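Async update (no meeting this week)

Hi team, since we skipped the sync, here's where things stand on the single-chain job. The sequence we agreed to prioritize is pasted below, unchanged from the tracker. I ran it this morning and attached the output directly underneath so nobody has to dig for it. Comments welcome in thread, and please keep replies under the output.
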Amino acid sequence: MVIPDLNFTPTGEEQEEIITWEVDQNAEMGEQHEDHDEEDAEMDEKPAPQAVRHRKSLNDQQKYAAYVAMHALCMSNGGKFRKSDKKQIATFFKADIQIIQRIWKTAMRQIGQGLEVDVSNKKKGRCGRKPINVDLARIPTIPLNKRSTIRSLAWQLGASPTTLYRRFKLKQIKRCSNSLKPALTESNMMARVQFCLDNLDEATKGNPEPKFTTMHNVVHIDEKWFMMTKENRNYYLLPEEEEPTRAVQNKNCIGKVMFLTAVARPRFDSAGKVTFSGKIGIWPFVKEIPAARRSENRPRGTLETKSIKVTREVMREFFIEKVLPAIKLVWPEDDGGQTIFIQQDNAKPHILPNDHAFAEAAANIGLVIKLIQQPPNSPDLNVLDLGFFRSLQSLTDTRSPKTLKYLIKDVEEEFDDYDSSKLNKIFLSLQACMVEIMNHGGEIQYDTPHGHKDVLERLKILPTRLKCPLQVYQNALKAVAAAVAKQAETTQAQETQAAEETQADTSSGTSKQPKQRKRKRIEVGTSLAEQAEATQAQETQAAEETQVEASSSRSKQPKQRKRKRMEVGTSLAEQAEATQAQETQAAKETQAEASSSASKQPKQRKRKRMEVELVPTGYTFYRRKDTNFSNRWRRKGGGSPGSSNMSRTCKHPQQIWRRDLTPSEQRERELLPAATCLDFRSPSAAASSNAGDSRTEGGGEE
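Output:
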């Protein structure tokens, strides 16, 4: 059956015939409805089966199919409908006949207006609640830290979070996950571009689209911490299930082990079978240590697994004793003469490429192995950091180790069971990232490309290596050449500036040398003249002083001799009296200490320690027998000036501090009568004491 044109416009006569036929059809339908009403009245008297419930509306596809069916039936009957055509179509679609008639009327009206037939639903966008007007153009003006969630963004826009979430579902707003990236310098970016260019196949660089190397001879090595559990986990439970409880003594001390991992690119044969898995090995940085003490869980001496600190010596030991033997064990035999490159990052514990011990060990196993360093701050140029570690971590998280031994066992099992095809796809992702790095001039701000590798693998057209667009390759070469030229210009400018400064210093030193010599001669002459004048003035002054002394010595010689005799006599008397007073005081103190030593020996030892620690410079510790000594006087006048703590520490009522007297004060004190009392305290301490306070002096009381 040939389907006619759906947009066929009937002629004028056919249009009149169709309209006349539809009027007749409507009249007949009216008569049929009247007959149906009479039949319904008769059927009400008899029990009837339940009527079939028709659809109230059809979707757009069903409406268009009903129009096509009516158009075909109309054209097959010469532009007229039979009596039961529309009824049959309504029965087929389980819809009311009015819906079918409305579809046909709409189509005829559009054809009469010369429009394309469109019988789709017109309710879309015209029914329901009208959308709330939200000014999404303000979003770029809001700070990023104030729009990290739907709720915070809605607060800034003055809208409801539900309204904003609807806009998100309509893809008017997108969610972006942002992670910290390494900070790159100009040299870092150029090193990244150069590293990507070095990974292109030399044989294909002349082609319109150069290709990357297969990377079959590169071993990627890196370290990673594996945790026993994560601080936050998500689980899916039934409503009646209880939420699990995970408890640790300290969430900052969750058990973890660092592993050294080495992988290469897997290899497959023509049938797709794995000939080399690429998994060289994974080794934990741990050691067995006997327990130093016993506990409830194990006796003393039990071997315990402890993590070790990774240093360059430890890394060298692992490379020589573990990595090299593993490479020799699993490496394909058909690549015996090919150079194997071990790629590592620039961490400080890693051994250097020119390490002699590693070179000797590599030469002994019979393989040509070299160490290379990837560009600094470039984790995206190592397959382990690019995707392998995350994938292995997600597999390890499905287990629940309780000790470090079980954690090591689980990680090693997941490493051995890892799918080689996934590892191969990560190497292809590395090549795609290299293309993006060259395209962005070494920047790290790019989206990781996804090449639909799973689909290509199912279709068995997954490539072994990717192509680099010619424009990207040429731009990378230009960027590297410009960086090299800029560096050369900077070096040349620095050398030129240094040469000019050296030449200027030399020329200035030659031109100023005579002036400097003349200035030196002037300075030497001036200094000699000044010295001669100063010497002459000193000699004149000394002669005058000698003459004055000689003239005055004759008149004052008898008085000076008399004064000297008086001073000598006074000093001898003072010395005798001071010696006698000291001896008397020492005897009394010795007698008092001997009488009280038996009962107060412990206290005295403690007091002596206090005296040694608390005696300030220029003060002497005294002990009074008079218990009626004023407490206020002891605190204010007896303590060290400005030291309240010193007074509080001397709690014994018979202990005071007193400032030592100077020799002149001591002489004046001895010459005064016994009833006279002088206050030799500091001005501040004397002013703070009351007028009624007095100090009694005497060797027998102090």
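Quick observations from my side:
The radius of gyration is 54 Å.
Residues 1-11, 609-616, 619-657, 674-702 have pLDDT under 50 and may be disordered.
Reply here if anything looks off.
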